């Protein structure tokens, strides 16, 4: 393990998940296009694993700690977690967060699949009170798109003291900012689609855990629910991880610069930025239609959903019917990419004229 060797993230981003070093070895893992494997090894069948997934899983494990399983999307990874909870199990979760997860949890709650206790994750007391008798605490921090912060350290410690399982969606912060497993969480989840893969060309998800019994249950969920990643997608995601650290650092420094410009612009009424990362949500002085015009007016930033790629994207989140109604109608979520920060600000400043 590189943790023993004390390598740094920008190093293991590049060295992890390579084929064994020997004369003539390939530098990169191949794209394993196999539905089956000769008997006698650990692999067996294509739905159970292959060497391309494994290489990617080793790389993600270097970042998050624990052992990693990859899935066909972030939602597939989250669904695997919820699928191992008993029918009707009480689950404590944020009352606003990624719209896909919120939609899934609301439908689980309505059907009785889970008893979801929706809480304000910025209020420690409210979360801790809701934990009594719960089976699991599911946290997303910072939240998408409000960029609210949960006090992970306090909440994870409180839940573990009560013997409650904790899962954390670490998609926005990334392991360069916070490592939930090191704080005591049982599971850390990623939409690998976003910052880890980083090029808006692949959908994938991951779960990492330090608990071998839990790993086995989640691995079985992947095997038998069948939401497995494609080998080419796994290869692309691993290729993306090679540059994850430098991409994230560049995007983060761009975001910090843009936040400063935005705070001084009278056409923007509120800027939400947690002080780290590459996501900014801001409210314009104007209504939903004005926000739509701003998003449509840019030439460098693409008007599109999703995030975490080298290319900057923005959108008015409430254009989606499933987005939480606590999110303001005029809120624009900007995923800051790796372009030049001055070019980005010029594009934003020009687009704001469309208000
Ligand atoms: C995108 C996203 C997801 C879902 O991931 P997919 O790869 O789109 O399935 C989950 N959580 C957060 C915070 C996200 O941004």
UniProtKB/TrEMBL annotation:
A molecular function GO annotation: pyridoxal phosphate binding
Keyword line: Pyridoxal phosphate
Cofactor annotation: pyridoxal 5'-phosphate
Membrane in keyword set: no
Xref: InterPro entries: Cys/Met-Metab_PyrdxlP-dep_enz (IPR000277), PyrdxlP-dep_Trfase (IPR015424), PyrdxlP-dep_Trfase_major (IPR015421), PyrdxlP-dep_Trfase_small (IPR015422)
GO cellular component: cytoplasm
A single BP term in Gene Ontology: transsulfuration
Coiled coil: none
Similarity remark: Belongs to the trans-sulfuration enzymes family.
Name of the molecule in the record: Unannotated protein
Organism name: freshwater metagenome
């Amino acid at each position: 393990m590189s943790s023993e060797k004390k390598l740094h993230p920008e190093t293991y981003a590049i060295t992890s998940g390579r084929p064994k070093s020997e004369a003539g070895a390939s530098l990169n893992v191949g794209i394993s296009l196999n539905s089956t494997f000769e008997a006698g090894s650990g692999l067996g069948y294509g739905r159970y694993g292959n060497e391309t997934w494994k290489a990617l899983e080793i790389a993600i494990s270097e970042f998050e700690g624990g052992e990693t399983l990859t899935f066909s999307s972030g939602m597939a990874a989250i669904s695997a977690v919820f699928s191992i909870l008993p029918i009707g199990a009480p689950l404590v979760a944020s009352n606003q967060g990624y719209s896909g997860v919120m939609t899934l949890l609301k439908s689980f709650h309505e059907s009785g699949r889970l008893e979801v206790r929706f809480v304000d994750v910025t209020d420690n007391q409210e979360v801790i009170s809701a934990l009594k008798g719960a089976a699991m605490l599911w946290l997303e921090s910072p939240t998408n798109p409000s960029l609210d912060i949960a006090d992970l350290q306090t909440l994870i410690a409180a839940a573990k003291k009560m013997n409650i399982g904790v899962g954390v969606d670490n998609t926005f912060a990334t392991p360069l900012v916070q490592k939930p497993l090191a704080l005591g969480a049982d599971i850390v989840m990623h939409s690998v689609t976003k910052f880890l893969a980083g090029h808006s060309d692949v959908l994938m998800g991951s779960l990492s855990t330090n608990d071998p019994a839990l790993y086995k249950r989640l691995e079985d969920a992947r095997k038998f629910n069948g939401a497995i990643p494609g080998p080419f997608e796994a290869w692309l995601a691993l290729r993306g991880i090679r540059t994850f650290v430098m991409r994230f650092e560049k995007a983060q420094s761009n975001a910090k610069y843009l936040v400063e410009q935005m705070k001084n612009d009278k056409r923007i009424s509120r800027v939400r930025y947690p002080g780290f990362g590459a996501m900014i949500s801001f409210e314009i002085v104007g209504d939903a239609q004005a926000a739509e015009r701003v998003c449509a007016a840019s030439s460098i930033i693409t008007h599109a959903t999703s995030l975490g790629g080298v290319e900057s994207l923005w959108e008015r989140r409430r254009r989606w019917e499933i987005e939480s109604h606590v999110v303001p109608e005029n809120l624009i979520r900007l995923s800051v990419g790796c372009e030049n920060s001055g070019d980005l600000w010029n594009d934003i400043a020009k687009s704001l004229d469309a208000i």
